Amino acid sequence: MLIKKLTKCAAAALTIALAMGTTSCHTPKDVTYFQDVQDGDSRDITSIADVVVRPDDRVSIVVVSKDASLANLFNLPVVSQRVGQPGVTIQEGHSSSNEVASYVVDPYGDIQFPILGTTHIGGMRRSEVAEYIQKELINRNLVKDPVVIVDFLNHGVSVLGEVSRPGRITFDRDRFTLLDAIAGAGDLTIQGKRTDVLVLRNENGKQTAHRVDLTDSQSLLNSPVYYLQQDDVVVVSPNDVRKRQTTANGSTPLTPGFWISIASLLTTVAVLIWK
């Protein structure tokens, strides 16, 4: 009688395990991005935001004119020193791609620009910085035909959690999206929770948290963090399966492994009693 009960229990546990295993073979519905998108859909992006200058940014500003010697008065010299060699080399004018002279924006949003002196560029877009300096040079009769080229040199975001390549992603564009950052990190792993992506942003001395659902395109496009800002932090949470894998054996009453273990134990007990 006892053996029959144990056998029935083992069979029931095995049936549950097989049923759960079959269910787990199906593709989870939360793995696919943008599940609400249909062919031909057109959606508005409501949170268009260019990157703006912030304190501690490194900004390259180059002035170009027909009179190169005059333009060079407004360009920082490149100061370089080779490791292990004495002396400092100063190079006037344009620099190579790996030798870029730059301004560091102070806590007040100011830089010290040659001849113009203290120049406030905090909160400006790249194009606004170029336009402002160009007007200042013309209005002060310093350069008649200036062309001002502005580049951001140290912009980047950090991507952490369930992605293939966590780390810092650098960018030099005026607009950099959350999807760009995820792609740069090698996409989410299969264990990444696509319905709960956290973006941390420093705003006015405070850190603000925003959560984004990557399976809902409209929610993403309407999010204030669809376009990222420099030094944003993107955190991808693990899904429930990944969380269970962090336990001692990864098995809980909700997993097939748990019920297979129970079935195996009951079968072993039944065999020993039968003998």
User: According to CATH, what is the class of the largest domain?
Assistant: Alpha Beta
Share of helix, binned? 25-40%
Any idea what the CATH architecture of the largest domain is?
A: 2-Layer Sandwich
How many helix segments? Answer: 7
Strand order in space, largest sheet: 9-8-12-10-11
CATH superfamily descriptor of the largest domain:
wza like domain
Question: Count of DSSP E strands?
Answer: 12
The chain-level mean pLDDT equals: 79
Radius of gyration: 30 Å
SSE order, as H and E?
A: HEHEEEEEHEEEHEEHEHH
Class by SSE composition: alpha+beta
- The amount of beta strand, in percent, is 15-25%
Rounded to the nearest angstrom, the distance between the terminal CA atoms is: 14 Å
Main beta-sheet strand count, sense and barrel state: 5 strands, mixed
User: What is the CATH third-level topology name of the largest domain?
Assistant: wza like fold
> What is the total domain count?
3
Shape: elongated
Describe this structure in words.
The chain has helices spanning 2-24, 68-71, 126-139, 178-184, 217-222, 240-245, 256-274, and strands at 58-64, 78-80, 89-91, 103-104, 110-113, 117-120, 147-152, 156-161, 167-170, 192-203, 206-212, 233-238. The longest helix has 23 residues, at 2-24. The strands form four sheets. It has a five-stranded mixed β-sheet with strand order 9-8-12-10-11. It is elongated and about 100 Å long. Helix 1 (2-24) runs antiparallel to helix 7. Helix content is 29%, strand content 23%. With 275 residues, the protein is of the alpha+beta class. It has three domains: 2-27 and 243-274, no CATH class; 58-152, wza like domain (wza like fold); 156-238, Roll (Outer membrane lipoprotein wza fold like).
